[in-house]
Amino acid sequence: xxxxxxxxxxxxxxxxxxxxxxxxxxxxxxxxxxxxxxxxxxxxxxxxxxxxxxxxxxxxxxxxxxxxxxxxxxxxxxxxxxxxxxxxxxxxxxxxxxxxxxxxxxxxxxxxxxxxxxxxxxxxxxxxxxxxxxxxxxxxxxxxxxxxxxxxxxxxxxxxxxxxxxxxxxxxxxxxxxxxxxxxxxxxxxxxxxxxxxxxxxxxxxxxxxxxxxxxxxxxxxxxxxxxxxxxxxxxxxxxxxxxxxxxxxxxxxxxxxxxxxxxxxxxxxxxxxxxxxxxxxxxxxxxxxxxxxxxxxxxxxxxxxxxxxxxxxxxxxxxxxxxxxx
Length: 327
What we know:
With about 325 residues, this protein is of the alpha/beta class. The protein has helices at about 5-10, 20-30, 35-45, 60-75, 85, 95-105, 120-125, 150-165, 180-195, 210-225, 235-250, 265-270, 285-300, and strands at about 45-55, 75-85, 105-110, 130-135, 145-150, 170-175, 205, 230-235, 260-265, 275-280, 305-310, 315. About 45% of the residues lie in helices and about 20% in strands. The strands form two sheets. Strands 2-1-3-4-5-11 form a six-stranded parallel sheet, with helices on both faces. The protein has a six-stranded mixed sheet with strand order 7-6-8-9-10-12, sandwiched between helices. Helix 12 links the parallel strand 9 (about 260-265) and strand 10. Helix 1 (about 5-10) crosses helix 2, helix 6 packs parallel to helix 7 and helix 10 packs across helix 11. The longest helix is centred in the N-terminal third of the chain and has 17 residues, at about 60-75.
């Protein structure tokens, strides 16, 4: 059979003899050929969700992605991972970005630890593309569905654990001051101090990024104070590990000279030396809930709540102990 003849059969032309057409179709079936129209239909029928990450690929991000991907396997949903910064470049306007998502067959968008501009949010809404934000950088608005954890309760538990051990000079090193989750953790820390009758000290509260270097810098500033803290509540595991390094280079031992807590309880907390006392966020479950919410919205199903907070838990390990002397 010639290539032109096969091409005619593939493209549905009627100028092919019935016997020849049957032979070509049988050969195509044997070789598993799928017509383009069928391939397009299958692509449309499959569900794909865009997962956009802000900042570096950390242990926190890895666990959230794992939760989203596992939920994707359960629901038959493909997950496409990208950088939030790439999608917000000035070269691509919000409407064009939303149109591309629709053209690419995205059923929805999940943003991790970031935020979209109001123009991007409006463009998604106009294109009927559902959006869910995990641990939003800004406080979630009524229009945006968000998934997070009980950050206030987590900050409260971490600081209360330290006051129960007898600490009174307790510092807080958090992420960006405008971050919604950071603000909630800070308020929890302050509430624990107040409940313990401990006066809050403004010089013991520092805001940085959620990262190791930020924790190392902030830890150094705190430990070089005339009256340094005996304990530090870290706004993330990476911040806490940075604080521990700042203590090490100054000849201080954790937890004998300084107690430190983290927040997230990623794998980093368990492999740290000593293992890190941390507030556990259910990161994988947050990813799963985010995907299920996007799929519900894409199907036109009403959500029970547009703002979901999953419970945190204090995990006590080897970086906390009573203070070395009077707190």
